[in-house]
């Protein structure tokens, strides 16, 4: 048989000494440059975190991660062990710096982990309710340390262990993406310069090392192994996938809807001194330094009105009120006369109000009452009659403008006689969403016996009083119930304006009354020349729709600092003036009929508790952390597999069976990646997880079946079973078929071998191994009693060498791996 000229392998064909030497060859320079690149990318946080205290934590965690990797690689520990140790060091640092109950101060025990969970929860709430740049509080510093620590570990693993520093660029780009999307202004120019320079230094350091290591390598294609290039390419591909997934989902942990693709378009745009259009049922109200936002002229002495920026019509259980998903409404140009607001028949007095924005930078233009027209407004502003908001697509610092508006307020008697009006507004204003039965029962009990919508709304409004245990505070009460709304209404009864407005609007919808949450500012204070509105006046209240009168304001927040306002239609009939002016406070008056003791409320709704417990207001709380842990484990196993592939690739011809990548790594890594994606999908919605698993099954199913078949045959060959020769020949023909070379099974063994050698351009070592395989197959098929004896001990080594040669000279494409042709073709029995 002749399958080509053969010559024994010589020492000149062995891989260069530097190649495959492992991470030790990188020395100190590459890890140092990887750490510098991480620090350079982390400087982008200057746009979203105040001060410079966080930068010290970034440097400390990066140095610890780099030194840990350097020390452990010097001891020649495997890459998974190094990555695990770096994660452990990060956990020790966070435990020691941000908790006070660690074992020996740094070792995390159950108490420390619980404390750390509370710290991270506070950080997430500060991100939700704050506006960038947020204060560098301890929770924020903890979150920054963990995030940059994980980035440092990933960059160190890619640059040093996997020898793919170019792939770190995708990870570092994701670090820039989050601050760029959240910051109200462009990031400082120097952070981009520093980041680009440090990344270039990392590439240069690695390039210099490769030049020294590969200076004496042979010409490409002669004896170099594709394993040396396929591993970095695979790392780049994996990093691209992880980077894109992380970049599009990272906001699920922080400020909702602030990155493109999050589902709310340009509506949820935090930053500057604008108001974030998303109210939260739990969290802290961080008002920060008082800044003047508007100067208002044209209001009469003692005239106190709420300044509305926008309204929210969508309630999301256990989150709060927000804007609907989708693009902004079309609207009409705002400069000039405006369509009549709901309930404004044009008969009331038109008032001109001059509003001068001082430090306002947002996409909303606040207005009073029912706007009839706007003057001195630049192009690009639009008015939506349904929501009552003036907006634009991009944030801007508007100039002074004049609003022509009707400030007329209906009387109590008129509101009692007003028709229901639910059919006059979109159905979204009456949709309560999924409610805890206890909340519905409370709303129905408060409104029992009321015959009109005003009396029902007033009864619910009066429930939020100090007599019923409600207290205004910038911090909510400790959580005692899984349902945030029921917890606030029945247990905690402590919070700020967003909790009160959110709760009252939901209760109104529970009894069929159209409602929405308005976000804007309280009345401010009069300094004699104009009325000044500051950041301390940011406020949320409820607007209720009455047929013929439009949207009417109800403010349930029990303010006690004189900033609130009780309109005439909510004052007792025997009160001549504003109770806030007479008493120095704004607390809704109480009637004995509406006071509901907490114990009685809980007893009356006991029958609904079981149903409430079965309702799910969102994903399991562990799904997000589970996805993160599964992704970290999958990344560690993938990095280990790629490191193994790189080390054994150049020396494949000298490898004995069982010395390659461990058989468990590929299925375990694949399973962990699928698990992380599934948990991440569950965090959104269970249906997405089901769809994702279905797609993964369809896409990865054929490849998995082919891999199982391949491993079964290889096991027969390695164990030298009597069927080893048949398994080797079947696997060889299937390997050729997967590469697009169909060899008929009716061909003789020698004819088939010649086609394999010629069409796949086997190198000399591969041809030698092919001869051994062919000889063993022929003896097994045609030798006397060969089928009943053990296989040739050289078969396993030769077949592994032949597969390695095919991988070098005819690498299989990704499409062929996902859709192996050997499974799709119709197989014919041997000899037919």
Automatic annotation (TrEMBL):
Residues 1-13, 582-597 have a biased composition (Polar residues). Residues 1-22, 321-350, 563-619 are annotated as: Disordered. InterPro entries: Bact_TGase-like (IPR052901), MFS_trans_sf (IPR036259), Papain-like_cys_pep_sf (IPR038765), TgpA-like_C (IPR025403), TgpA_N (IPR021878), Transglutaminase-like (IPR002931). Pfam families: DUF4129, TgpA_N, Transglut_core. Residues 598-613 have a biased composition (Low complexity). SUPFAM superfamilies: Cysteine proteinases (SSF54001), MFS general substrate transporter (SSF103473). The keyword Transmembrane applies. The chain crosses the membrane at residues 54-75, 87-107, 136-155, 162-181, 187-205, 233-254, 622-642, 663-682, 688-705. Residues 489-558 form the Transglutaminase-like domain. Keywords: Membrane, Transmembrane, Transmembrane helix. This is Transglutaminase-like domain-containing protein.
